[in-house]
Design goal:
Elements lengths: L1 H21 L12 H10 L13 E5 L10 H15 L3 E5 L7 H4 L4 E5 L12 H16 L3 E5 L7 E3 L1 E2 L2 E2 L7 E3 L2 H7 L3 E15 L17 E9 L10 E6 L6 H4 L12 E8 L2 E6 L11 H15 L16
Parallel strand pairs: 1-2, 1-3, 3-4, 4-13
Antiparallel strand pairs: 5-8, 6-7, 9-10, 9-11, 11-12, 12-13
Helix pairs in contact: 2-3
């Protein structure tokens, strides 16, 4: 019986340890980017703004992740800061505190940039009033005429696995459901699945003459190796967004296509888009998982133009790609 007592001892110890860890406050996010990655990013930055700002612009970069914490979040935030500084397009403030998304603080900014925020990144699980206030402040900020720019895991926010009577379900193409429909619609989609980092993607430029796509013009088709998201079909739709770039799905091998359990029947995998939200503007770029994305000058120029669009300085057609839809 001694071995049973020993196993029981180990189990009790393991449970106690787990409980102690569960009771701890989450570790603060790393806020310091890798110096070598910063150096590569700075060397790849665009030399100048796409257009001259109409007035001095300020961007608040929110780098809070409440779900998976990407290692490149500090690099993404620093990229926005350095890009604005070099091009003169904006000045940036970086914050890891979601409490900074409040009506009073946001009055000084022209746009918010979401640097791979994940999970319910604005919410305070212990304060429903604070959560509601922050959510309202973000929506009112954009709808009132300001901008929202976002990269990569900003779309891995406010969704969860659909529930069935038997528990969580992954039995259908839309097993992920949104938990904040107004944000899900505003950002343009939420994460469903991804090709792992290391997957080669051919980037299709959907509108070669669109002003936000000027960085791709006259260049060979861009290829990128990164983690590439797909989006729930019940939330992402060309009836809701104007697609700028997408996965060139026809150039993907059957083997790589088969990695996705529930592929879209239409093969429509957008990578970047814009949309109008009330009087405001939204830009989203799906790549940005690994550090090499931030040393890709063409991609950085695209993000620069997207952010200047969100700020209201770069005019662009942001009507949905498919007209007359309800989504």
């Amino acid at each position: 019986m001694r071995w049973k007592s020993w196993i029981l001892f180990l189990l009790i110890g393991a449970c106690a340890g787990a409980a102690a860890v569960a009771g701890q406050e989450p570790k603060p996010q790393n806020q310091t980017p890798n110096p070598a990655h910063v150096e590569a990013m700075i060397a790849a930055l665009p030399a100048a703004a796409a257009v001259k700002p109409k007035q001095p612009r300020k961007v608040l970069v929110l780098a809070k992740a409440a779900g998976y914490v990407h290692a490149t979040i500090p690099l993404a935030a620093r990229t926005v800061e350095e890009m604005g500084k070099k091009t003169g397009a904006w000045s940036a403030t970086i914050t890891y505190d979601p409490a900074d998304i409040n009506e009073q603080n946001l009055k000084q900014y022209d746009a918010i940039f979401l640097a791979s925020t994940t999970g319910h990144f604005l919410d305070d699980p212990n304060d429903a009033a604070a959560t509601a206030s922050r959510r309202k402040a973000l929506l009112d900020f954009v709808r009132g005429g300001k901008g929202l720019a976002a990269i990569h895991a900003a779309s891995d926010s406010y969704h969860e696995t659909a529930k069935t009577d038997g528990g969580p379900s992954k039995t259908g193409p839309d097993f992920e459901v949104g938990t904040w429909p107004e944000f899900n619609r505003m950002i343009g989609g939420f994460f469903k699945w991804h090709w792992n980092d290391g997957q080669l993607i051919h980037v299709k430029v959907d509108e070669p003459d669109h002003p936000l796509n000027a960085p791709f013009k006259g260049k060979p088709q861009m290829q990128i190796v990164d983690e590439t998201y797909t989006f729930g079909r019940n939330v992402y739709s060309r009836q809701n967004v104007r697609v700028l770039t997408s996965v060139d799905y026809d150039k993907m091998s059957a083997e790589d296509k088969a990695k996705e359990r529930f592929p879209r029947a239409d093969g429509d995998y957008a990578l970047s888009w814009i949309r109008r939200e009330g009087k405001g503007r939204v830009f989203y770029e799906a790549h940005g998982h690994n550090d090499k994305a931030y040393a890709n000058t063409t991609l950085l120029e695209h993000v620069l133009r997207g952010t200047q669009y969100a700020l209201g300085d770069l005019p662009a057609d942001d009507s949905p790609s498919v007209k007359g839809g309800t989504k």
